[in-house]
Structure formats: structure tokens, C-alpha cells
Amino acid sequence: MSESTYGGQAKLNICSEDTICFLLAGGQGSRLHPLTADRAKPSVPFGGKYRIIDFPLSNCLHSGIRRVLVLTQYKSHSLQKHLRDAWSIYNPEMGEYVTAVPPQMRTGESWYSGTADALFQNLYLLERSGAKRVLILSGDHIYRMDYAAILRRHAELDADLSVACMRVPVKEATGFGIMSVDEGDRVTAFEEKPSHPTTLPGDSQVAMASMGIYVFNTDVLREALNQDHANSKSSHDFGHDLLPELIRSRRVVGYQFGGDEGRVTPDRYWRDVGTVDSYFDVNMDLLASNPPLDLYQDSWPIRTYQGQHPPARVTSGNETSRGTIENSMLGNGSIVSGGTVINSILSARVKIEDGAQIESSILFDNVHVGAGARLRRCIVDKDVRIPAGIRIGYDAEDDAARFSISPNGIVVVPKDVQL
């Protein structure tokens, strides 16, 4: 195990021996519908190759986090299959694991009713682990981060709870949990999605937003969850309920993302792909001439499952057409046969027939686009067959009669559609 890939032994000790990770991956992702019609949001494909959950799991891998419990709930089959195929890499004889934990109703007869309740229902797993610290992550954000850095800072500041945070423009801050942090990095206040966000001292255009990444001392988390469970008026949500109370009673500190990021190249990129439009935009970010998210750092690769497919191929179609690719990404096994692909992302085993044109679109696995078809600003789910000559993304009225269209005009073609 090399230091450049997985961290030096001193860094691993602070993470793997004393820390357990709970990764919250049970959200419905209703604003991503129909991409989440049959899958949980963390298992939605991303970037032509990955699933969204691959990003926090890869961060765990490279940060030395070797015990990860993935709390699932909503339509979890696709997610559990991906965890099996891509993440069965740890050695259980060494106490290492990535384990999916569905709701088990150990504390009552209800499913998870909030982020805090999901953890409360699995307190027994925390007790059994013997961990001194708990890293809590969300499974539906795109970013790269060295968690060893926040763990070290947590220890240095003798914190009870550390909250990762980042600067956001105040006009965007209403969609986040907003923190106030003093000069010693102590969190003094927290508001969940405020209508009038508190800005940073000396800069009225910027606020400090929570990233939904937490490091708890185990005893502090246990006490907080028990108190929250006993409160009949609680919504059992971290932002609404636990954080404000802990700020009043415990030492809560902020860790600013993009500061000391350890071994990650400092791209400072973090996105919540909560809507179809944000999902589309984050994918398109990968096609920029200088992508804001660095997927090409050799010592911090994003791990995923890859099928045994042949290389992508671009060929001529008939005697007068040639396959053309411009500023696009092609997955393994894809074939562009006389078609044109512009500013688009093709996943594995996509087939583009002669004369077809794909522009500013995202095609999932095993999509087949017939000859002469034209797609523009589309997301096409897996296994869809696009008939020859069809046009999608050119007539909003016609598209709306058949498909979902986002506020920004992105057409989503679901996998069960009949064309």
C-alpha cells in the first residue's frame, strides 16, 4: 500500500483504527425523477462511467476509512448490486467492510423518518464497532475530499463535532444549512435553508454553508441521538434538530473545504445533484476545456464497477458519412458508426447509427440511437432504443407530450418509454 495512493501509515491510523463511517444513501431523490423511478439517488449513473455514490466511497478508500456502513432504504436494489460489484474489495478478516444496511425496525415499526433517526435505529452497530469517532456522509454529492484532514483537525481542536463547510454566494445560500463561525473556527449558529442567510463578517456577498459531512465523538453522537429520539416534537433531522442543540451545548467546529485538503488536488469542487438541471450541469462540467472537477489525479482515482467491454470505436457509416466526435466522452464498448457526437457523454455500450446526431446530451448504458435520429439537450436512461429519424429536444410542445422536461429545458427519456 503506497503513500501516494492510499496514504501513509500515520494518516491511516487516525482514520481506520478509531473511525467508522455511516453513509446515508436512502433518499428518494424525487426532484431527479424519472432517473430515480427505479433507483435510489446515490446509484444514479454519472459521468458516463460512475455512480454518484462512488465519489464518497472513493474518498473513504483513499482516506484510509476501512469500515463503512451504507444506510439504504428507497428502491435500493440497484444500489446494493453496485456495492456488491464495485465495492467488495475489503478484507473482512482485517475488520474492513463496505456493508449495505437496510431498515430493520430494531427500535420500532417505522422506516427511517429522518437522517438522525436512520442513525438512531443503527446505534447498536456503532456500539459493536468500538469506534471513537464517527464520520457521517451523504451518498448523493459529487466531490473529492481527504477525510483524514478533517479528522486530524477535529483532534487538534479537541472538538465534539466537526462540520465540513464551504463558502457559497449569498444568492445561493437559501438552499443550504448556513453556519456562523468565529475566529477560532467554533460554530456559533446554524440555520437550515434560511430566507435571509447570515453572511461572513466583512463580506456581504458570501455565506458559510454546511456540506453535510460530520465528524462526531462517539459518546457525543450517542447522547445526541438518544435525546433526539426522546423528543416527540423533533423531525429527527440533523440540520433542523441536532445541530442547533449541539451548538448550544457542545464544542462544534467548522472545517473549511478547500483549505488543507491533504493529498487531493485542490479543485474545491462540491455539488449536490439534487435536480435534473443540476445533474445535467455537473455532467457538462466534465466537458469543459479545464474541468472544475479533477478526475485525472492518478493518486486519487474514482473507483467504480466496469463491465468487460471492448474499447470504444468510431467508424464510417455508408460511403459518404464518417463518424465524428467533438468534445465528448465515450464509455467502453460504445460504437459511433457514421454518426456525430458533440459535447456529449456516452456511457458503456452505446450505439450511434449512421447520420444520427447527438448534441449536449447524456446517454446511459446500452442506448441505441437509430440512423438519422437527432437528440439535443437530452438525458436518455439505459436500454432505450431511439428509432431512426426521430427528433428529441427540438420541439418543446412535442417533447412535453411524451417526456419529462426540466425547468431549463432538459428532456429526460426514461428507460421504460415506448417510442
UniProtKB/TrEMBL annotation:
Residues 23-287 form the Nucleotidyl transferase domain. Alpha-D-glucose 1-phosphate binds at Y112, G177, E192, K193, S210. Pfam families: Hexapep_GlmU, NTP_transferase. Signal peptide: none annotated. It catalyses: alpha-D-glucose 1-phosphate + ATP + H(+) = ADP-alpha-D-glucose + diphosphate. Residues 310-413 form the Glucose-1-phosphate adenylyltransferase/Bifunctional protein GlmU-like C-terminal hexapeptide domain. Homotetramer. NCBIfam families: glgC, PRK00725.1, PRK00844.1. Involved in the biosynthesis of ADP-glucose, a building block required for the elongation reactions to produce glycogen. Catalyzes the reaction between ATP and alpha-D-glucose 1-phosphate (G1P) to produce pyrophosphate and ADP-Glc. This is Glucose-1-phosphate adenylyltransferase. It comes from Granulosicoccus antarcticus IMCC3135.
